[in-house]
Design brief:
By secondary structure, this protein is of the alpha/beta class. It contains 14 helices and 23 strands.
């Protein structure tokens, strides 16, 4: 065991913390035992040094040619793929996520793929949205903030949403902003290894050394003070609603844009025809989705709306059996287990009935048995806030309705969510109900899904991994999908009567890069006027 306190990536180099308030180690979720080296809990001196260093290089990074930014992103992606054996072993030990399927087969390729998509957006200038009005002499585009971006990584995606490699990181760097990454303390060694690869790729690409920094942990009070520091340009956060809202309040007071993914129960509506057609299959799909990754997905189906009918009752019976026969599942930490238990207790106090709890008492470590609850639609409508409590684990609540008409009233009771799903019959018999419910649900979710569970999130330019509050802090932005995710960390810059030679390259008459631009209301790659 290595008892030496690990260095932080600070001010362009790996160095000892300038002052700690404590130390910690990761834990093996399957046993609860501490593993790996000792990491520092950074004090105010580390945070101040990170802010000062990032602020000092912000202008230089903003002026860096697009090709060098793209080269860094691609070199980092290549390094992640080449180091897969080490990264997967570290992440598997710290999270207990399946190494061959989840980590190596899905999440690590997703992380490197996001970096490459960001590089493509950088080269094409697609994220800058160049707009030119020749009559008014005005030209505008999205551009760097000129300030650092602070990124908080979550516990549930050690690669694809990691503060030092995930979509928030890639988006902020693509927009040419320095990043101060706050790793999640449940997977510090994984984050450290990724930061080592990022730092090497950064230096090789010739970017300012302090463009990427990593702190593993700091106290809540320091985090709140940092979130309210006006030297920041923006904050990206993925985590709990309580922690996110506290940070958002601090950022709001300082006028700092705060882009957060907070919580979501991702309602699923099972329409009558779909249940009659394939109810048992839907029960299997639901159970598999709810327990995927031990239920620790932000798109976990936390509420499922089911009609009271023979087919609906059969679905409930089948789903109940799946949950009752399931073994306890490993969560990331004991704190996570406690939060899930608290969420279930809140649902029960609000009137939910426990239908099934998986086999209890098997295994050690941080485990929670899959749990299925049920409540009547009238109670759900009467207590929508309490009955939409997110239990971040293998837990779901069934809401029983009389018919499709009552589903509309249930849909109106939902707060903002990342996703909303409607399962339809293949013969079109549910289409009238779909058309009645979908507009109501559409206003309450970021992604409307037809006839599939919500846990899959494709990394696509057409993706929206966002939604109305409280699923996120702003309904107009996404945390997944290039180039749209880059827009969160950009500023709109307008130029009035500025000479052509002094304009950013994608706004010049000649359009030397052949960028797609909106010129006098039309998309075009053409040059303007007499430019050749």
């Amino acid at each position: 065991m290595n008892d030496a306190i690990q260095p932080v990536l600070l001010a362009g180099q790996w160095q000892s913390s300038l002052g700690t308030t404590g130390q910690f180690r990761a834990a093996d979720p399957t046993t609860g035992l501490a593993i790996g080296p000792v990491f520092p809990v950074s004090g105010a001196a580390d945070v101040e040094a990170a802010l000062a260093a990032a602020s000092a290089v912000a202008a230089e990074l903003a002026a860096t040619p697009a090709e060098r930014i793209a080269e860094f992103l691609e070199a980092y992606a290549d390094a992640l793929d080449a180091d897969a054996d080490t990264l997967v072993a570290l992440a598997a030990a710290e999270t207990a996520l399946a190494a061959p399927t989840r980590l190596r087969g899905n999440e690590l390729p997703r992380a490197s793929g996001q970096l490459r998509q960001a590089a493509q957006a950088v080269r094409s200038y697609s994220w800058t949205n160049p707009t030119i009005d020749t009559a008014a002499g005005l030209r505008a585009h999205l551009a760097p903030l000129g300030k650092p971006v602070l990124v908080f990584g979550p516990n549930n995606f050690p690669f694809a949403f990691n503060a030092i490699a995930g979509s928030d990181f890639a988006s902020a760097i693509a927009a040419r902003n320095p990043v101060i990454a706050k790793a999640h303390p449940l997977h510090p060694a994984t984050s450290q290894r990724m930061a080592q690869l990022a730092h090497t790729a950064l230096l090789q690409a010739g970017l300012p050394a302090a463009s990427v920094q990593l702190l593993y942990q700091f106290d809540n009070a320091i985090g709140l003070k940092l979130a309210g520091d006006a030297r920041l340009g923006a904050i990206g956060f993925t985590g709990s609603r309580g922690g996110g809202l506290a940070l958002k309040a601090a950022a709001d007071a300082a006028g700092i844009p705060f882009y957060a993914e907070l919580s979501s129960v991702n309602p699923v509506f099972l329409l009558p025809g779909a249940l009659a057609e394939r109810g048992d299959t839907l029960a299997q799909e639901f159970f598999a989705s709810c327990t995927l990754g031990s239920g620790q997905f932000c798109t976990n189906p936390g509420v499922v709306v089911v009609p009271r009918s023979a087919a609906g009752d059969a679905f409930v019976a089948s789903a109940t059996a799946h949950f009752a026969n399931a073994s306890p599942m490993v969560l990331f930490s004991q704190r996570g287990v406690d939060h899930v238990a608290a969420g279930v207790a809140t649902l029960c106090r609000a009137g939910a009935e426990v239908l099934a709890v998986g086999v209890i008492g098997q295994g050690e470590g941080s485990r929670y048995a899959p749990t299925l609850l049920s409540v009547d639609a009238a109670e759900f409508i009467a207590q929508p806030q309490a009955l939409q409590t997110e239990a971040f684990g293998p837990v779901s609540l069934l809401v029983r309705v009389e018919d499709a008409d009552e589903m509309v009233f249930v849909a109106k009771a939902f707060e903002g969510n990342l996703t909303g799903t409607l399962y339809r019959a293949s013969d079109g018999s549910d289409d009238a109900a779909w058309q009645a419910i979908a507009p109501v649900l559409r206003a309450r979710v970021g992604r409307l899904i037809n006839s599939k569970m919500p846990t899959g999130v494709a990394v696509s330019a057409a993706q929206n991994h966002g939604g109305p509050f409280p699923s996120t802090g702003h309904p107009g932005f996404t945390a997944v999908g290039m180039p749209a995710s880059i827009h969160r960390f950009a500023a709109l810059h307008s130029y009035d009567a500025v000479p052509d030679a002094l304009l950013p390259v994608e706004l010049r008459d000649a359009n030397p890069g052949g960028v797609q631009r909106i010129v006098d209301g039309l998309w075009t790659t053409a040059y303007i006027g007499s430019a050749a």
